[in-house]
Amino acid sequence: MSKSEFLGHMGKILELPEGSLTGAERLEDLEAWDSVAMMSFISFVDEHFNMSLSPRQFTSAETLNDLGKLIGLAAD
Fold first, then answer.
1. Contact 27, 33 (CB under 8 A)
2. Residue 39 and residue 22: Cα distance in Å, rounded?
3. pTM score, two decimals?
4. Which of 20, 18, 19, 39 is closest to 30 using CA atoms?
5. What is the second-level CATH architecture of the domain 3-70?
């Protein structure tokens, strides 16, 4: 999966306009980043990457790029 595809999926999870995310967004600044979005992210990772993440694994993530790194995407 490319970074742009990842950001597209994250935009859907966060219910943001297509193409509006860059990856540098801080999670704490995203109004829609809440427990439902976190669970949606965990489900997305499980479905598309066959990985199981616990909430504890991504609590140190500060940006969308950090979330991408958890699944092996380069921040470029």
1. yes
2. 21
3. 0.86
4. 20
5. Orthogonal Bundle (1.10)
Nearest to 23 by CA among 31, 35, 11: 11
What confidence tens digit (pLDDT) does each residue in 9-46 have?
999 999 999 999 999 999 999 999 999 999 899 899 99
As to burial, measured by CB atoms within 10 angstroms (0-12 exposed, 13-18 middle, 19+ buried), residue 14 is buried
Query: How far is it, in rounded angstroms, from Cα 34 to Cα 3?
Result: 22
Six-digit token pair at 45? Answer: 């990772």
Q: Are 32 and 14 in contact (CB under 8 A)?
A: yes
Question: Domain-by-domain residue ranges, the chain?
Answer: 3-70
pLDDT in tens, 45-54: 999 988 888 7
